[in-house]
Amino acid sequence: MGRLGKLVSVTALVCTGFARPLSAVPQAGHEGLHGTGAVPREILERPVALRTGIGTLHQKVATTSQEAQAFYDQGLAYVHSYVWIEAARSFHQALRLDPNLAMAYLGLTDAYIGMHDPATARAAFQRAQELAPKLNKNDQMWVAIRGYELDYLESGGDSDKYVAYRKSISEALKTNPNDPWLWIQRGLADEGSPVTHGQVGGVDTIAFYRTAIALAPDNFAAHHYYAHTLENLGRAKEALDEAVIYLRMAPAIPHAHHMHGHELMRLGRTEEAIAEFLKTKSLEEEYYRTENIPSRYDWHHAHNLQLLAMSYQSLGQMKAAEGAFREAFAVPTYTDFLEFNRKAWPEFLLARGRYEEALHAAQELTKSEWPLPRLAGHTLAGEALMAMDRANEAQEELSLAERETEQLPVNIVATSPFPNTLRAKFLYREKKKEEAQTLLQDIVKMTLARPGPDAWSAARFELESLARSARQNGDWSLSESIARAMIQHDGTYAGGYFALGLAAEHAGHSAQAREQFAAAEKFWSKADKDLPELRRIQEGVSARR
After folding, report:
1. Of the candidates 96, 80, 145, 180, which has an alpha carbon nearest to the alpha carbon of residue 125?
2. How many CB atoms are closer than 10 A to CB 544?
3. pLDDT (tens digit, 9 = 90+) per residue, 242-283?
4. 182: domain CATH number?
5. What are phi and psi of 22, to 5 degrees?
6. pLDDT tens across 135-189, in order?
7. Is 256 contained in some domain?
8. Domain residues for 94?
9. 398 within domain boundaries
């Protein structure tokens, strides 16, 4: 990932799914933008109509065609909601109406990067650059900024090129301090990597997005990115307010509903979050039907299904969770991070004690063309084998997983729990309890430190797995400590109270066990009636009687 600029963690790119190095492949002409990415050119260049409900954005560009301006604005709206395919279609439509609309080529640059087609992104930029001498000063400014951005993106993380990119925006702001788009771009630039596109903002981006909102309160892009910034900082209530504004402005956009679901989930309003994830799913499926576009070309589809599945899982509705996880796992992927995210299915199977199925799912990941999913696959396959008392085979998987780490940048390995979750199991097996504890404690800290709603949601189940691993190896003190961390992380998740109740029961603290199990039952009130954890609680109550 170091080749893509400033280093970011595994979970920072969950949404974008981008992990390919960029390279420039010269192309020519609007008709010569021969896409090399996963989405067929035929789909990206299909004619498109003007749409409603997607949010209204406007950026005045140099064209005499009102229709071309309208389609440019529509492309802009889609770009800032991560609907890359429709953004590309809209920009291509604008170019049919005005072949010299350089800003539409810049829009295509953004859209093709979003679709993981960097070569065609560079080709689109080159077409804009060819038209630059005939443009007004404002459009020339944007061509220059995008050029600096692409140079940095393709540079392998050259700090001088990063400084030049940010400086180009700052210089433009001196001349145009009231342009909200420049303030938005400045916020995007401060993330350190163009591929994250507003999803990993932090304290440094707050002022830029707030300034954009002050200048243009109706600019939903600023509200969208500000919401991401707030959620990354753990300011969920404020993020919810911004997500509500975004949704009100763009009610037909699946990501707007999904974003609203993020914040509801974070605030413990899980059933409402599920409703939003289901609405997202419905909008996406209607779009696939009406536009005849296979769902596999939409990165957002599997991502939404996984958040839906985790929401069901958090309520103890394992049957519904299984359906959503299984559906997400079946979606073909076209980047390493999207493929890496498929690990959620074998992780779920491991948590439910379905080890043979987990092994088969994990083995599918080991066949990936990318090292990151293979790392997850070998680790999870090893954990399944350990659970089935096939330690020798598990050791082979650990060796293969360790080999995969040699193919990955240091920061990716440092922010991934793999293969250390499997390594800890072997340390326990070798009676190296203190080393295992240290390793698991490090994983707990890393898990809790990861920003973003996806990481926050997944952390509940990752911590639960770590607590279970410690418990199965007789390390009850560590299991109790992790259970407390789970409750502190999400005080509405029943699994934390269940794990704490088990630890109290083991220690002979009956009153405390009853208290924690009662809390677990409360938060699992909407769970499947045959949830094994609930049955375990009832068995414990009967035994104590």
Report:
1. 145
2. 10
3. 999 999 999 999 999 999 999 999 999 999 999 999 999 999
4. 1.25.40.10
5. -95, 145
6. 999 999 999 999 999 999 888 788 999 999 999 999 999 999 999 999 999 999 9
7. no
8. 18-233
9. no
Query: Number of structural domains, the chain?
Result: 1
Do 295 and 331 meet the contact criterion of CB atoms below 8 Å apart?
yes
- List b or e across 184-218, with b for residues whose CB sees 16 or more CB atoms inside 10 angstroms: bbbbbbbbbbbbbbbbbbeeebbebbebbbebbee
Q: How far apart are CA 347 and CA 199, in angstroms?
A: 25
What's the pTM?
0.91
The answer to whether residue 210 is domain-embedded is yes
Separation of alpha carbons 308 and 175, rounded Å? 45
What are the angstrom distances between the C-alpha of 407 and each of 56, 182, 325, 371, 523?
Answer: 44, 38, 28, 6, 42
pLDDT tens-digit map of 1-36: 333 333 344 444 444 333 333 332 333 334 446 555
Tokens encoding 459: 């952390």
In a domain, 46, yes or no: yes
User: Cα separation of 119 and 476, whole Å?
Assistant: 53
Contact yes or no for 200/8 (Cβ under 8 A): yes
Q: Which two tokens stand for residue 350?
A: 């491991």
Can you tell me which residue has the tokens 């799913």?
281
Angle at 84 between CA 81 and CA 86, to 5 degrees: 95
Residue that the structure tokens 């090893």 belong to: 382
